[in-house]
Amino acid sequence: MKFKKPNFWDYKKPNLFAYILLPFAYIIKLINFISKKEKIITEKIKTICIGNIYLGGTGKTPITIKINQILNKLNFKTAFVKKKYHDQEDEQKMLSSYGKLFCKNNRIDALKDAINEYIDVAIFDDGLQDKIFDYNITFVCFNAQTWIGNSFCIPSGPLREDLKSIKKYDAVFLNGNGENTIEIEDVLKNIKPDLKIFNAEYMPLNIKELDINQNYLAFSGIGNPDTFLKTLKKNNFKIIKTINFPDHYKYSNRDITKIKETAKNLKAKIVTTEKDYYRLNKLNTEGIDFLKIELKITNENQLINFLNKKL
After folding, report:
1. Would 221 disulfide with which of 91, 150, 213, 249, CB 3.0-4.6 Å?
2. Torsion angle, alpha carbons of 79, 294, 220, 264, to 10
3. Does domain 46-202+295-310 correspond to CATH entry 3.40.50.300?
4. Using CA atoms, how far apart are residues 187 and 179, in angstroms rounded to an integer?
5. Which ranges in the chain are annotated with CATH 3.40.50.300?
């Protein structure tokens, strides 16, 4: 069964359920502390990890793709590294469409394959909490809209680690739709004054191929569907119906048939995310559009200088 994020995780303040679950959060923290491992330092290859401490929906994969594109322009031979999860084939397909992907049951084997092919820089999509690696650069992604939710750790809230753990990492991406992030940046700088902060905004790449004058039914199975909806509305899509599924949801033929019947009754077209589109079989994609996006980094020159300096 797919896990669906509880609504109270994103309340501005913790509620009763969050406090009831708090003892379990402390137990998980203790287990993670006890299970610390000796880190592997790789000299034959540089490593970058793009991860998060908020569970899901922070823009990791688009940022991973963007950094890969930047490094390619800087003449680095790059590859993506990802641990193989059968429920994340959508992300694996996306990464493969933008570059070389090494995907194994454990990240060490995937990294060894990258070394054997003389890759300069391995870019890890996720793996920030993998205690065995000592990455050359670590990025933490946040969604500017949801930020840290109720600020509690799993299962009381959406955080994999305490926000104070940001001290361990090199830089942060605040991804969203142009939200004001001054307060968030102040909080982060208070924890780590020399933390590098980069802002990025979701930008559609194929909007000219879609008819935004039509009414649309939008569906998605991603970590933060509200961000997808906000991106659509910001770009003048007329959304008259939304259907949300759990993150990495595997669509059945019945699901898609129901979506198409609902859209037909509403006399609406259908739009979803690129990641969701990769989860559909070829027969189901007929009559379904997807919004192809990239994250435009507002201070990209600073990021390029940062990458050059660290690598």
Report:
1. 249
2. -130
3. yes
4. 16
5. 46-202+295-310
Please report which residue ranges of 154-310 form alpha helices under DSSP H: 182-191, 225-234, 253-266, 274-277, 300-310
Count of beta carbons in the 10 Å neighbourhood of residue 142: 24
Q: Residue 235: beta bridge partners? A: none
Rounded Cα distance between 61 and 51, Å, is 9
Strand partners, 198: 173
This prediction's pTM: 0.91
Q: Which amino acid belongs to residue 168? A: K
CATH class of 207-291: alpha beta
Measured CA to CA, the distance from residue 263 to residue 308 in angstroms comes to: 48
48 vs 46: CA distance, rounded Å: 7
- Amino acid identity at 98: Y
Which structure tokens are listed for 27?
Answer: 């137990």
Q: What are phi and psi of 27, to 5 degrees?
A: -65, -45
> Residue 7, Cβ neighbours under 10 Å: how many?
9
